[in-house]
Structures are given as structure tokens and as C-alpha cells.
């Protein structure tokens, strides 16, 4: 009956993640769970995230203990129905671990093939990471203000079944060109259009977060032929209001403590912002031209401390499928913006979630998006 045993393995959250720490178990051996229940907390260099049960069953054995650091793909526990014998559980674990070396070799090879690389797109050199393949329409991910491709660590690979999924750093962000010639939504959308051309993608599903959501809608406005659908997460362009204290504080913070205070505004659960994440953001901010690039974008997109673009007419005229995700506890862009989105848009609002639904509600966002993309393939 070992076919009824479900392995629980160390997930791969980040593009450079090779190992993770099992911070704690939230379920004890012998306890029954439903699909989606949180089983454990996994700590990475970027964030601490809950490990959700892939199916209903009983946590029969905790193979790894709290505090252990394990390679991606390593067995941390076993889920099975109570009818499966202890002998079958032990046999499954032994077989799984005996094959682990081969699995790790294959995973390493896969990681090497999906390393970020530079792509010349119009006026910019953009840092790009691609995963997945297949005949499905590609999915392009556009991060928000001050973000980078790591913002999609829980999204990119989860949606890469049967399609290419491309994450990249916007101009002025991450490892892309730091000199931003036009920081407006239109200027950034032009860079995205150039990237699609450089990747020989004639049409793509577009997922955009925050400022990236505004860029995605502007891409639809100016290059409608390139957009198959829109998935928007707390997008810019539907309210005048924006938390300019966050925008300025995030751009100008020069000490870790100040940066942590700003990053905590992104999430409802402040414990998600760890020291390593703060360190990573501060390293990026210290790169030559990084702060100036953010200042240019902020001045163009948030003049006089308000959102400068009203994108409601674009969605009202849209003939493509659009879905929206928004956290009701968003401290950066008020969720009231969701009230200004046309009724034709599929809306998903999350109580107790901040500005990063793709991280705080990763499982729900991914499952809903996969169904959305399949429906509108």
C-alpha cells in the first residue's frame, strides 16, 4: 500500500534556493489534516513561509526535526491514511531516501538550466529567469516598486506546468540596468514590450503586482495584441491614494532597522520579514544608481504624493479575461481600489492579508491562477 503514502519534501521557494530550514512543525505525528492545512514553517534566506498539506490524511511520521537544514527535495515527513501499516511507511521512507542522490542530481541540473541571465530589450539590459516549457501561452510576471524576481519565489515554478513562466527585474531594479530613462508606467510598459519581442513571445498572460499591475494594464492599453489575460495583485491605477511614507522610507532607508520597519508594511503577519530578507534588500539598495532609479520612478508614478495614472477606463474597455487579488489589510495601496474595478473582473479579496498576497496566500493565488489560465488557454 506504499502507493498511498505521500512524501512531504523540502520545497523550492526561491530561484537560488538549494536548502531550507524546518523552523517548526505545526502538526504532530498522528494528527489528521485536510488539504491546505499548514503542516510546518520553512525558513529560507528571503522569508519564512508555511508548508501546506498537499492532500488530506494523517501525518504519520516527522522524518526531519525542527531546526534541521535540509536540501531541497529532502524528505521531511510522510502523509498517509491511518490504514497504511507502519511497515509500509518505513519501507516507503527507506526507498525514497535510497533514491535521493539521483533526485538531487537531476534537481541540480534543472536549477543550472534556469539561472537568471541578461536579455537586451530595447534601451535596457534586463535580468530574466525562465522556467517551464510546453505549448501553453507563456506567463510573464511583473513585480512591484522596489521588488525583483524573488518576489515570485512562491509563484513562478508553481505555475510552470505546460508553459514558460518568465520573471524579470524591471529597469532600475535587481540586476537590470539602473539608469531609468522613463520611469512612468508607459515607459516601463514599453520596456516590457521590448522584452517580449526579445524573447520572441508574440502574446502572453501577464501577472502584475502593485506598480507591476499598473505596468501590466498599461501594456494592455498600448500593446493590446501582446496580452492574452491579466492577473492583478493589489495593482496601481484604481485609487489616488498611496502610502507615500512607505515609498519614500523604502527608497531612502540607509539602515537595516529602518528598512525592516518599511518592509513590515508589506505584510499583515510581520513575522514574515526576517533578517536575511532585510539584508538582501539593503544590499540591492546600495548598488550604484539603485536609489536614483527608484526616485525617478516614484516621481513619475506618484506625483504630489498620489497615484498619477487612472487605469479604470482601460479595464472597462478590455475584452480579455482579468482577475484581481487584494489583501484587505494592505498598508501600501488601499483595498478600496478594488471597488473601482469593473464588475467583469474576477475579484478575490483576502482578509488578514497585506500587500503581498502572492506570498501571504501563495497556495490560494496559485491554485486560482492555474484554473484561470487553464480556463482561458
UniProtKB/TrEMBL annotation:
InterPro entries: AB_hydrolase_1, AB_hydrolase_fold, AB_hydrolase_sf, Biotin_lipoyl, Single_hybrid_motif
Biological source species: Acetobacter indonesiensis
Gene Ontology CC annotations of this record: membrane
Domain Lipoyl-binding as annotated: residue spans: 5-80
Descriptive protein name: Branched-chain alpha-keto acid dehydrogenase subunit E2
GO MF terms held by the record: monoacylglycerol lipase activity
Residue numbers spanned by region Disordered: 99-118
GO biological process, one term: acylglycerol catabolic process
